């Protein structure tokens, strides 16, 4: 009875609400003519997203484009790549170590995040860990009082004035020194304890790098990745976790710095495994049907090895630019390793190469020849004046949240198109840049680019940024058209650029 009363009074409230709303609505519609000026001011809402979407930390990560890896440890002093774990801490003595120099080199290269090997496979720790004495504490460096992680964090904080540098940590799961390795419970406890030290002592950590590398005769054991990842998110909620399988950033499947020409930020995590390096092609290209947003990071060293070796020298500018086009230019991040030497400094040759690299990138991309051109498109969401989705948006400074959107109806030509026209003079360029509004999902599956009606490039994915360096070299024309032939829902283009790469010219 009581229940019935409650229900009927709810019904009454609902009825009265509905009636008053209907009344209000009818007055509104009756007095508001269809094309009133006030109505023109009401903006068209953005189109619905296409899932999965990036998290806010992943979006910030993507915009960094270039990040730096620092491989440093006992291997630096023993001329090796994979230490045995039997190295004496006495070999570690970087008498001139200056983390400020590392940070300056990073800033000069336009890098905003540096990732340090806090512990590599040899198990030697670059910070004072309570849980082992196999660390800088047992080394002669600074009488055992030095802390490389602490020095980097301190220098990065000071480097803020130079543009801001964040810190990331690589803590190798495979540990060839510690006796607990191979005993699943004990080693996982040890590893997690070290992770907690690193994530609580040094302020904000923006990326944690986990790899599955392990020698073929290493003791058999499993890692509790689920616990480790949960601990990272608990202690550093804005950190992105990298591994062969994400969850936030995935490995690109090779160490050359090359992503696939098709490269989706989406993938199915259930098809991946952290410890098993198979599925390399899948990692390289991603998956248009993937249910997880896990963009790829391209790790490569400026030298042949990851650690510094006297006999090696840095790659030349042409090689670095090729890596840039094949990583950043294929919707990925470039994680470039620049190893400090036995003095504890990044060699001057490498610092100089980083400066050249930055100058080249700035020279190529600071001028957009499409700027000032007129832009037309096959259709426009909300009309040209009302929606905020006009084709001109592809030429503004925002490469994420202002974009061209077609109206979503069947296109007259059977495909979407957007065209840049100079009006008079011929545009001369050898690089085309296209960016999607990935905040609403990655969508474009197939497109072609035409200059005055002639096809000069085509592709299968765009994502955050796609660069086409034209095989033909410099081309000229008054109009450039992108035809979008296949897309997951309507395509959204946030930026478009025509650029001139003088280095390509010379290197060809
Ligand atoms: C791999 C390691 O085995 C290499 O030594 C290096 O650290 C590279 C970045 O990751 O998994």
UniProtKB/TrEMBL annotation:
It is found in: Secreted, Extracellular space, Apoplast. It comes from the Eukaryota. It holds the Pfam family Alpha_L_fucos. Belongs to the glycosyl hydrolase 29 family. The lineage of its organism: Eukaryota, Viridiplantae, Streptophyta, Embryophyta, Tracheophyta. It is an enzyme of class 3 (hydrolase). Residues 88-356 form the Glycoside hydrolase family 29 N-terminal domain. Its EC number is 3.2.1.51. Keywords: Apoplast, Glycoprotein, Glycosidase, Hydrolase, Secreted, Signal. This is alpha-L-fucosidase. GO terms for biological process: fucose metabolic process; glycoside catabolic process. InterPro entries: GH, Glyco_hydro_29, Glyco_hydro_29_N. The keyword Secreted applies. SUPFAM superfamilies: (Trans)glycosidases. Residues 1-20 form the signal peptide. The keyword Secreted applies. One of its GO terms (molecular function) is alpha-L-fucosidase activity. Its main location: secreted. GO terms for cellular component: apoplast; lysosome.
